Amino acid sequence: xxxxxxxxxxxxxxxxxxxxxxxxxxxxxxxxxxxxxxxxxxxxxxxxxxxxxxxxxxxxxxxxxxxxxxxxxxxxxxxxxxxxxxxxxxxxxxxxxxxxxxxxxxxxxxxxxxxxxxxxxxxxxxxxxxxxxxxxxxxxxxxxxxxxxxxxxxxxxxxxxxxxxxxxxxxxxxxxxxxxxxxxxxxxxxxxxxxxxxxxxxxxxxxxxxxxxxxxxxxxxxxxxxxxxxxxxxxxxxxxxxxxxxxxxxxxxxxxxxxxxxxxxxxxxxxxxxxxxxxxxxxxxxxxxxxx
Length: 292
Hints:
- By secondary structure, this protein is of the alpha/beta class.
- The chain has one domain (about 60-285): Vaccinia Virus protein VP39 (Rossmann fold, 3-Layer(aba) Sandwich), CATH 3.40.50.
- It contains nine helices and twelve strands.
- It has helices spanning about 65-75, 95-100, 115-125, 140-145, 170-180, 200-210, 220-225, 245-250, 260-270; strands at about 20-25, 25-35, 40-45, 50-55, 85-90, 105-110, 135, 150-155, 180-195, 215-220, 230-235, 260.
- It has an eight-stranded mixed β-sheet with strand order 7-6-5-8-9-11-10-12, sandwiched between helices.
- The longest helix has 12 residues, at about 65-75.
């Protein structure tokens, strides 16, 4: 769930390209050409924006949450060092493309349940054949279960069914399997979405804190204050996170965000309890105004 839709209703991009529409398992997929970037495209499912891709510049990240995840890809290891990255949720493969461009020779696995969406994106926004990206059609948790122990340096969860994170990807048991797949010192990053009163987000912080020693969370100030529905990017690890640099980068983005960690983040979570499989629920449905 990416929040505000850019260029809604646009038919032609700067290069004269037209929108492309196709039926996928998750609904009606639409690729809208970017009027400001000749090789840019926005992927929408049933009108909800999912990803933005610039085929000519895969290092360009348009959506705020993707920029924040891109910062974490940058900070997870020294520059240009290859990583093993597991992407739960494929969309238009924006972050896999970014990783391949910024960290050549990285090994990447993408788990995307919507096989028709994968085929649609591959046809119209093909991946660089030199990128080492393996795409598996499976439920995110089932695909995670097949990843070898300790394989991933970074696990990125960006999974939405419609505009909601499925319940079975919000629990402590899910994070137990994430930890199993992570290499020692590996990071977990998740794109979450919530609105007032932020009960879902507080529960996700408490759940991650029950499984990882270090957390940080980035969101727009209006989301932090519970004034608007929006995205938040959570990062968790068992080693010290470069919070100061992450904070600087998020604050310097075109749409500046705020990062909290440590005691301030624990205080924000308040008395929220970790989520278990037996009690897990999907993230809240965003209000219609989010996509206007």
